[in-house]
TrEMBL record:
InterPro entries: Acyl_CoA_acyltransferase, Bact_Acetyltransf, GNAT_dom. It comes from Microbacterium hatanonis. Gene3D superfamilies: 3.40.630.30. This is GNAT family N-acetyltransferase. GO terms for molecular function: acyltransferase activity, transferring groups other than amino-acyl groups. Residues 3-150 form the N-acetyltransferase domain.
Amino acid sequence: MTVQVRRVLETDEAAWSRLYAGYRAFYKLDDDPEAVRTTWEWVSTAQHGFIGLVATVDDELVGLAHLRRFARPSTASMGLYLDDLFTAPATRGAGVATALLNRASEIAAAEGASVVRWITAADNAAARRVYDRVAAATPWVTYDMKPATS
């Protein structure tokens, strides 16, 4: 099986939407077609600095990754943040995630970025095995703060 990675195309919308719905279900997010449509718009038109990648096998979409640029004041450099990475269950273990991560690394190098960064669930053992092969886990703990209410 040969995995190809490329930028997302307008013609990918239906297949991408199925994969992204699978991503949302994996993380136990509500079924929200509007969130899927909005994310597609961002990724497919490069809004908010997004770079949409898809992985294909025999012209079938089997994975996706969404990157966006971010400033790193502490190093006076730019980085790429990996917001989403998902592979179709039938192709897990076939190198799809690794191919997407390798392409993210190539894009970072081409853009002069200093890092590709992402977070994952602590209990996502299968993904972490892949991540541990291509990246270094950090000691940082992530927090989420809700915006103030009026």
